[in-house]
Amino acid sequence: MDPQSPSAFVSGADDARHRRMNYVFPGLLLALTMVLQAFAPHTTLALRYDRAAVAGGEVWRLITGNLVHLNWPHLLLNLAGLVLIWVLLAREWSFRFWCAAFLICALAVGGGLFAFDPALQWYVGLSGVLHGLFVIALLTEPHLRWFERVGLLAALAAKIAWEQFHGPTPGVTELIHGAVVVQAHLYGALGGAVFGAGAWLGGRTRGG
């Protein structure tokens, strides 16, 4: 068995347990974001990334801002992306790997916005984290062939580069009825690249 493959770290009863646990984090994330949206705008105002509030000590907003959304179309678009990443590329991830990947990507988004975008006063949405999770999945998915991995990473890099110079993908602003903060996609992807490279070198997405 390939020692770099996630399957190298668990088998038998542990493998069955892993497969059950694989559903827990994405399922909880879907449920949590939907509950938060159901109680908007109170939850949005309390949890969104807010530069002044973060500067005043509410540092948890660096993470929680990724969990609340502008509206239901915004949330459902992001949840569709989460499900696609989970089903197509992240079925081998352990619960702890999911937690760590989400935390790093969320901190990369919130921290990046705070450090490098002083004019941005507030932000909501999961899309920055999703870009990071997609990068992690592309770097760690054992069944991808090298040209598939490279091609998808190149396509994502081209998308992000386009956004930085030309703005968001056409139609997205109209779909979510709000502005798209494309910098969040860049910061999330960079956080995902760092985490994914470490996971790839360590060869662990399931163990532990």
**CATH level 4 superfamily:** Rhomboid-like
Strand content: under 5%
Largest sheet descriptor: 2 strands, antiparallel
Q: Would you tell me which CATH topology applies?
A: Rhomboid-like fold
Structural class: mainly alpha
Overall pLDDT: 89
List the uncertain runs: 1-12
The number of helical runs is 11
What shape does the CA trace take?
Answer: globular
Helicity range: 55-70%
What is the terminal-to-terminal distance? 18 Å
Radius of gyration: 17 Å
- Number of DSSP strand runs: 2
CATH architecture: Up-down Bundle
- If strands are numbered along the chain, what order do they take across the biggest sheet? 1-2
Descriptive account of the structure:
With 208 residues, this protein is mainly α. It has a single domain (6-202), classed as Rhomboid-like (Rhomboid-like fold, Up-down Bundle). Helices cover 68% and strands 2% of the residues. The chain is built from eleven helices and two strands; from the N terminus they run H-H-H-E-H-H-H-H-E-H-H-H-H. The protein has helices at 12-21, 24-38, 42-47, 51-55, 61-64, 72-89, 95-116, 127-140, 146-166, 172-176, 182-202, and strands spanning 49-50, 122-123. Strands 1-2 form a two-stranded antiparallel ribbon. The two termini are 18 Å apart. The model is unreliable at 1-12 (pLDDT under 50).
